[in-house]
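Please annotate the following for my students:
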Amino acid sequence: MKETRIVFFGTPEFALKTLDSLHKSFTVSAVVTQPDRPGGRGKKMSPSPVKLKAQALGIALFQPAKIRTAEFAAWLQSMAPDFLVTAAYGKILSAQILAVPRLSALNVHASLLPRWRGAAPIHRAVLAGDCESGITIIEMDEGMDTGDIILQGSVPVGRDETTGFLHDKLADLGARLIVEAVTAILAGTAKKVVQDHSQATLAPPLTREEEILDWCAKTSVIHNQVRGMNPWPGTYTWFNGERLKIWAGYPVHSTPANCGQVLAAGKEGIFVSTGDGVYCISMLQPPGKKIMDAADFLRGNLLPPGSILGK
């Protein structure tokens, strides 16, 4: 199947295994990724993970600032692809671009569509406490994740599973399913399924406000928020006027007191009252310090019972 020509669109780490899988099975004739962006403390221009992967594989690379131009359309047509494949590229492709491939334009989406259409499907699944997630391969149209379903696969989501852990599972699954989908289309055995648009939910980008813990929320909501924002961007609360990042913990079935009140603090963790129970903080990060467990934090910080977090 190496004669099958694919132009791949992708940007973050999630897309790497999909690119590698396509490269092993077909001919990825070019990679399109976002332009280098400033990042890190020095704000130096940094290449996307997909750019680095494409360079390592020796694949032709294109980083257009805009893709809705005559120049880009002409370049893409010159590549004469059989397929376009996108995986977290970051932009919606126009009808003109979608019409270029000889056979199909496919997207690897990290949810069980039509649930969680949009930019942050993995985060949203964990934040919502979903017990199942998955990958959907769709044939793209001009809408946001609205195309016909070619293939789906699901994975369970554990009650303590983080967004980072689910991200890695879905990256592996997506890499396998895209090869199956392309192979089925080539063989003429692929079956398209129209999405039930009435069941669609949206997965918008995360907001700054969603990083802040509300100790009056239900314990399950707090737990999902902490694991849903791990490893990025993290959640935080306030203590003595300083921002304290919370990276891990677990619900405790107990009688609540005042919202945010520390009930106990020791090597087992920091037990904080919520709106309907107790949440035990196990991993946290003071300002300017590394992530540490609760026991290490308490060796250098006083957090006596009765202290209030969130102020």
In short: The chain has two domains: 5-199, 208-300. The helical segments are 16-25, 49-57, 70-79, 95-98, 121-127, 163-187, 219-228, 294-300. The longest helix spans residues 163-187. The mean pLDDT is 96.
